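ERR on first pass: missing label on line 2. Operator R.T. fixed the label and resubmitted. Corrected input:
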Amino acid sequence: MVKLIIDTDPGIDDAMAIFYAAAAPDIELLGLTTIFGNVTTKIATRNALRLLEAVDLELPVAEGAAAPLSLPPFAPSAQVHGAEGFGDIPAATPKGQPVAEEAADFLIRMAREHKGELVLCPIGPLTNIALAIQRDPDFARNVKSIVIMGGSLREGGNITPHAEANIYHDPHAADVVFAAGARLVMVGLDVTHRILCTPDDFASIAGQSPELGGMLQEMSAFYLAFYETVGKLDGCSLHDPAAVIACTHPDLFEVETLPMRVSCSGETSGATLEAEVGTRKPTAVCIHVDAPAVKSLFLKRLALLP
Ligand code: RIB
Ligand code: CA
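pass 2 clean. output:
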């Protein structure tokens, strides 16, 4: 059983990842922390609470940073995820509230309380994780691993020709994380671009899980329509679910172990690059994936939901 915290900017594929984690029998979800990216941090917190209520899980949600470490704030990715983060599904107010603790402090405390056991899966910009590293010199040692959805080794970018969106939205934070010496796994575009879900796949999920699968199917229409506008007609990528699946099924991913750094300026800003050997502890960078196996796990487990 993996003890997991997801740091998230929900977000349509974030919603898929959180529903997957709720359904997975090998994941003990301990809470969510929120960050800007697909939406503002405030909306991310509201959406995270709403997703947990949908899956009937009473877990802490800790609100994170409102802006990147050094760059000015970016506009949310409304063209990809909709103005409120869930495509055309209208905003709804959750019953619950976030905890009083800030996300970075919550992460520090949880990493101490579950020393050596906590797996952290950031599926948005890495600001909260960088703040936890900067505030607590033991944080990188206390977590078991950090499985990042972000970056790209050879695939090129998805927000610029060089950068993947989560890293682009706070490159300084990502560089802090790659330099921290924690056990890191990078689940980037090299693998997530190989794992595609079609309208038929979402219809099949909704057929077996009318309530929550139906919600994902409704959201996915907006996401799939965006993919079509950028010429991707064979489905949408399961970016965030792939990272959560990598936490429990590393065997489905082939990695290259490389020290990594992040470009923080100019036209390559947000690009994840190989660092000089010996300068940083290496990251396990996913370069190949058994895409049919990841997708089948995703479809099979979501079908368990109501
Ligand atoms: O590049 C893909 C990532 O950017 C995903 O986490 C998606 O939700 C967006 O945040
Ligand atoms: Ca995300």
